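Give me the fold.
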Amino acid sequence: MTLIAGALAILAAAFVKGAVAFGFPLVATPLLALVVGVKTAVAVSIIPNIVMDCVQLVRRGQALGTVRRLFSLIAFSMVGMWLGTHLLAVMPGRVATLVLGVFLLAFAAISAFGLTLRVSPAWERWLSPPVGLVAGVLGGLTNVPGTPMVLYFVALGMDKYEFVRAVAVTFIVAKVVQLGAVTWYGLLDLHLLVVSLGFTVVALAGFAVGLRLQDWLPARAFNRAVLAFLFGIGVWLVVRGL
């Protein structure tokens, strides 16, 4: 029964990721935590996330240009992810979850009033390292490295396809580092690895359906869907944090 409930959570989260290019751990982690606990939920959701982002990246191509642009963000996110995973192993993530949720709600509220946050190209090289570090720490602690990065990519004014490539590249790196870290700290054993591989198959089914929706959405509707989803996530994270 636990495996069935977990598979349904993975299926729903994978559909969301396929539709808006991110959000898998944000949906999967709290749902899985209802039946297996937070640390196990984090551990078993990493491999499905990596596989889906690899598919997403291959579909869009031109990854090297995105890697060059975001190199400093990626490098600092790797450091932050390891630090955050260490915190996950020794303390609860309630405080970080609450802070992240409030930040998301503030961003969504500003956008709802028509104020679009933008980062000047001149500032990108200076902001990318701290954004990467913060995203990595929060990702290791709460399993959601993508949310600060997604906010940053929106502020950079990326178009739909560059946005999808940026999400895929940064998430793959962050999740590979996280996979090594959870294994190092004993959060992913052989049994959970087998479960995670099974969940990966389930995730790909939901992801394929979500991708069809993503391809169908016009660019403007896609951006609105991203912001609406961020607002919903913000509410959910605040509730969890409280």
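The chain is about 85% helix and 0% strand.
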